[in-house]
Each structure stands twice: as C-alpha cells, then as structure tokens.
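Thread: "does anyone have the structure for this chain?"

Original post by V.I.:
We have the sequence but no experimental structure in hand. Need at least a predicted one for the grant figures.
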Amino acid sequence: YPPHEGAYDAYIWDMAAAPDGGFVLSGDLFFPAPRKTDIWLIKTDSLGNTYLPVGAFFEPDTLYLTPEVDTLLNPIPYGGTNSYTHQWSGDTHLLDNDTLWYPTFTAIDTGAYELVYTVTDEDGFMGSDTLTVIVGDTMTSLSSLLPPRPWRVGPNPVSDVLSIWGPELSPKGRLELVDAVGRVALDLATGQNISVNHLSNGVYVYRLFEGERLLQSGKVLVWH
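Reply from O.Q.:
Generated one for you, tokens below.
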C-alpha cells in the first residue's frame, strides 16, 4: 500500500534484524507524477512499531548574552525510547548542573563558549548537538553579530498546527519544510496556521521565504 501521500507503489527490498529485537527495512516509493523514485529506510521495535532514532538539537544553536545574565538552556531531545538521561560537556563550569535537561547558564566573562548536550535513551542509544554561547560587553556590541530573526515559528516541538508570529508577510510569503534526507516535505503560502498532521515524526529544517528571498531558517521537531 502507498505509505506516503502521492506514492503509487511501495517496494521492500531488504529487511534485517536489529540488536534490540526490532527490524530495519529498506525499499523505495514510485511516484507517477512527477515520475520519480524515492528510497526509504524504516526502523521498528520488536512489536513492529516504527522507530525514530534518538537525537537532539538546539533552536537557535547560538545564544548572544551579556555578562551576569542567567539563561535557562532548552535543548530538544527526540526519538528513541522515552526514558532519557542528560549529560553536558564542554564549558560546563558555567552551568548549575551538567546532568539536567534544562540547566541554567550564567554568563560571567566575555568570550565564546561551547556546550555539547548528549541525550541517552533507556536502550543506551545516544544523540547530541552543540550550542555556542557568545558573551559580549553590551547588547550594543553584540548587535552586529546577531542574525535577523524577527519571526517565531512554533510551537517547537509541534504535533498538529505550526504557526508563524512576527512582522506581516506579503502574499508572496511561504514556508518550506525539508526533511532529514533533503526532500521538501511541505511548501505552503504562509498563513496563521499550517497543518503538519500528514508529516512523519522527525526533525525538519524550516525556511521562510518572501518570493525567492530567504528570510529566516531554523529547525522544528514534528512529533505526533
């Protein structure tokens, strides 16, 4: 049966047992219009439920702060099995706790700092991402480094409806979501509410355009 909207045929070419008792399946999808073939890879647990490997990301992945500011860090873990443990490495002397999901970062001295967040699920699989923190004397000194991000895309994670808040966009405004293999999974005119119910669980890169001009990009987790 077609597992993806618009697919005409689905083929399974190989299946292998995984160490955790589940399975890994590979195959392809055939789309008649436009005529193309996409390769797919699925991981299941021992009961046949589809499985998203554990991972994590920051959105945004760079913070700009002034000294003596306390900031709650907010990594987004996903996938794997539900019971997570958390570990931070790098410049952890600036954290109140390096095993919390949401630790507090205290900006003491100016400079650039790097923190690596690693999430481990109950099966021992791990995912990680890196956060860069730039601490400047004043926000004025940081202003030249700050990328323009006037729009907020969320909620993040999102389960059903994605919204865009910020300056009003022209009728040429559109939002594009790109999946982990680089395929455009959604390309719609920007409205107040955008449904993601038909998208598979996973991390997507969002791109906000006005016509062909890229205004802003980032990451969003779709999780139903």
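V.I.: this helps a lot. DSSP finds one helix and 19 strands in the chain.
O.Q.: and The two ends are 22 Å apart (CA to CA).
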